[in-house]
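stage 2 :: seqdesign
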């Protein structure tokens, strides 16, 4: 493949091209690998990005429910605060390629962006495919060659990278290799944990991968009865014994196994150990204090005093939740509302303000939005993303032991670390 005139073709490049030797092989054409490859190619390097899927950036195409939350418009300190694992390691990366750099790059390559609630940046097209396609075109335009193959091994001699071996038995020579293979979640997109094997083979420590931003499993078996119910503007708090791990407002969803949705995924990032179970409390009416809610209930009861209790909550709660709340309140369903006592009302208010579920697990890692864990950051130079153990071996993106909450922060990690690796290859 010829490099575009725009970036020139020097003698060294010509020679390498004839020998089929690369300055750098990037393993993985996800967001980290594509930015890394584009940045290195722009510097005049002969770059091959090797991707095992025929369609590059498969995971990127399903991000943000198909809309791709590209980054966040927050300041760098907020990026650091929202990074759950090894935030200090990312200072150099975040400063070298900022969220503003990402937004300008996407604007330059034809992806106009817009900012939504919580500073989340999305493409105006609302399509993750436009983001992925633009990144692939950009990498190619910068001169990177995208090859479809499955890398099986990295050959290292005298503590320096030599070549990579592919599943077809092909040996591709390269002076440097960047591992941008992603984590181990959503394996159907191609991230099957291969990078951990490559890194371990090179002597790196792998911090055991675990799911982050993942739905939670509850003990209550009846949960399946309210499957599909989604709640907006609720407050969720998560406790481990008496220690509060998380508390925030937003949206959540009941599933056949438990709970999911943005609030729950965010809360899951705070779980370290489930142990004998965690306590999840949902405040179904966070805008009202317990006293205000009681006043509201009394008003509803007074309006139709001869109604059965079972028919009295339609204006207050979603239909699917009513039978559960009635059962849990302990109030007899056919009792006339004017007969309900103050103590019974207190029980009702408590159920609505502190709807309790016992969390007994998370869904498996293949259902997690993010893999927490990966290549230990102590063994990677944070200013270059180069291995401290093997010369010319680089890491970028989710394969590294860094992860953040939702909001566009994880893709920015991929872009920033990919850029830094591409700059130093
Ligand atoms: C459903 C979902 C929604 C998400 N939404 C958002 C969002 O809106 N915003 C956000 O910031 N983050 C989001 N994320 C997280 C984000 O997608 C990841 O953090 C990001 O894709 C990581 O980029 P990466 O390049 O490191 O890895 P990946 O995107 O996983 O790319 C790695 C690539 O390497 C390839 N590969 C792996 N092994 C080999 C091999 N041996 N040989 C050749 N190729 C190989 C894979 O096929 C893959 O294409 C979401 C994740 C999921 C699962």
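stage 2 :: out
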């Amino acid at each position: 493949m010829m490099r575009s005139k725009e970036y020139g073709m020097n003698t060294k490049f010509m020679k390498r091209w004839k020998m089929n030797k690369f300055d750098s092989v990037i393993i993985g054409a996800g967001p980290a690998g594509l930015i890394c490859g584009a940045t290195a190619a722009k510097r005049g390097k002969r770059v091959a990005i090797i991707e095992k899927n025929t369609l590059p950036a498969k995971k990127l195409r399903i991000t943000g429910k198909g809309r791709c939350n590209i980054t966040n418009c927050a300041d760098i300190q907020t990026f650091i605060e929202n990074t759950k694992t090894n935030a200090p390691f990312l200072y150099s990366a975040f400063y070298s390629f900022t969220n503003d750099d990402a937004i300008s790059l996407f604007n330059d390559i034809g992806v106009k962006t817009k900012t939504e609630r919580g500073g989340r940046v999305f493409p105006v097209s609302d399509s993750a495919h436009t983001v992925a396609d633009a990144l692939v075109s950009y990498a190619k335009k910068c001169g990177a060659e995208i090859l479809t193959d499955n890398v099986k091994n990295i050959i290292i001699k005298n503590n320096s990278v030599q070549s990579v071996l592919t599943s077809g038995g092909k040996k591709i020579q390269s002076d440097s290799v960047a591992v941008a293979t992603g984590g181990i979640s959503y394996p159907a997109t191609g991230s099957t944990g291969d990078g951990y094997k490559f890194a371990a083979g090179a002597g790196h420590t792998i911090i055991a991968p675990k799911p982050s931003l993942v739905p939670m499993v509850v003990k209550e078996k009846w949960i399946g009865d309210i499957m599909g119910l989604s709640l907006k503007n609720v407050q969720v708090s998560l406790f481990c014994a008496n220690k509060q791990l998380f508390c925030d407002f937003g949206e959540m969803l009941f599933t056949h196994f438990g709970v999911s949705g943005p609030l729950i995924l965010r809360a899951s990032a705070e779980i370290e150990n489930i142990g004998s179970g965690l306590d999840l409390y949902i405040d179904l009416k966070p805008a009202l204090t317990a006293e205000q809610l009681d006043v509201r209930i009394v008003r509803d009861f007074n309006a139709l005093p001869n109604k059965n209790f079972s028919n009295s909550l339609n204006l207050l709660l979603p239909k699917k939740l009513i039978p559960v709340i009635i059962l849990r309140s302990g109030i007899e369903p056919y009792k006339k509302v004017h007969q309900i006592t103050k103590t019974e009302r207190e029980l009702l208010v408590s159920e609505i303000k502190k709807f309790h579920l016992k969390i007994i697990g998370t869904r498996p890692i293949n259902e997690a939005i993010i893999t927490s864990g990966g290549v230990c950051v102590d063994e990677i130079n944070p200013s270059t993303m180069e291995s401290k153990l093997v010369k010319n071996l680089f890491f970028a993106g989710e394969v590294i032991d860094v992860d953040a909450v939702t909001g566009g922060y994880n893709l920015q990690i991929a872009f920033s670390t990919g850029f830094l690796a591409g700059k130093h290859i």
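stage 3 :: structure notes
- Residues 27-33, 50-53, 58-60, 62-64, 68-69, 150-151, 180-182, 185-186, 190-191, 194, 369-370, 397-398, 408-411, 414 surround flavin-adenine dinucleotide (CB under 6 Å).
- Residues 5-211+371-424 form a domain with the FAD/NAD(P)-binding domain fold (CATH 3.50.50.60).
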